[in-house]
Amino acid sequence: MNYLPTAFLKHLRGQSTTITDLVRITRKDGFKIGFSSHDQDIVFEGLVYKANSAMTPKAVEKSSDMSVDNTGMDAHFTSDGLTEQDLFSGKYDGAVAEVIRLNYEQPEAGHKIMESGFIGQVKASDGKFSADILSLFEKLQQSKPRRAASTCPEYFGSPACGMNREAFAVDTVITQIIDDTNFVVDPVGWLTNDRYADLGLIVCKSGSNNAAQNEVHTHLANGSIRLFAPYPFPLNVGDAVRIYQGCSGAFSMCRDKFNNARRFRGFLFVPGQDSVGARMPITAG
Q: What percent of the chain has pLDDT over 90?
């Protein structure tokens, strides 16, 4: 049950109210940004909530059972706040969002958290964006059973993997653009070895896609890189990138390339389709 401060509750029961909704977004790196549906900026708990003419929290879906409660928000992109480049470069992936209702004449008199969750699907058009705010209970409903497969299910550098991903990274720059998923980088360090970055990550360190990451499809010793999907914004010659070695999840790669066989989490002796589909020998009886 939500308990409201006496002063705020008294204001809500009055004949007229001065209520507004705020949205506070906290990224994984700790950066916070606030939006207000009011026509003036509001300072609350040390954060300035920028007036945003298009900022409209959507209706909060509440239920009495264990189903997921969700809401959302619409707002304008702003040059001094949340930009389209920041949003689609992944800076706000997994960010926590809170919808707060308070008296804008007396913010210190109390408030109510209408919803708290994390940023889900985001859409953008005509200088505005629309974001779903998914309840924290959503994560509890995301089933992640461990699958029985001959390959390792962990991503390279995860706690279960135990490898320091940064030790297998190299910094370089783009020297040639072929198309939106194919380009060439300066082949420094281990990039002179064919296929070392296959299934690895590439993170832009400058340019329009700064901080955005992508997955490498194929890497060749001459510095050629092919991505599975394009970046949200065009790449340019001279953009700095950091490339991480990739892992296919095969036991041989875990053992021979990374010397990490003891942390392999696949099931080597799971029968494959050929074994399961093979006919059992028939003996005369």
A: 42
